[in-house]
Hints:
Helices cover 41% and strands 16% of the residues. The chain has six helices and five strands, in the order βαβαβαβαβαα. The chain has helices spanning 14-26, 45-56, 71-77, 91-99, 115-127, 134-140; strands spanning 4-9, 30-33, 62-67, 85-87, 105-109. Strands 2-1-3-5-4 form a five-stranded parallel β-sheet, sandwiched between helices. Strand 4 (85-87), helix 4 (91-99) and strand 5 (105-109) form a beta-alpha-beta unit. The radius of gyration is 15 Å and the shape is globular. The mean pLDDT is 94.
Amino acid sequence: xxxxxxxxxxxxxxxxxxxxxxxxxxxxxxxxxxxxxxxxxxxxxxxxxxxxxxxxxxxxxxxxxxxxxxxxxxxxxxxxxxxxxxxxxxxxxxxxxxxxxxxxxxxxxxxxxxxxxxxxxxxxxxxxxxxxxxxxxxxxxxxxxxxxxx
Length: 150
């Protein structure tokens, strides 16, 4: 289990973020909370970028992002080379995104899952490891070295 996690999101994910933070604290995991710090309307990219920075600088090994659908935070995070953010709404998806895709960020859809499901998803994400092998070859192909012209 990792001992430090960065977390962020938007106003639609704020309540679930606070519940996830309490859960992580109960597991003795340190949390770097990049906000938001209330349910007031905000722009999710402003909170995603610092979380990605923590991953890319090695401050944390894993992170969690939460917005209404999970899509906006995942799309923003996945713009960064080296970030692999998986949007998960079941524990099995969280396990597979770590095992097969070596995801380093979990995106949660705050408006579409209950707290107990979210915590199960978080636990699977944190307790699963990348399997490597044939999956490494695929992960290596996620960010191409060349630009394709369409």
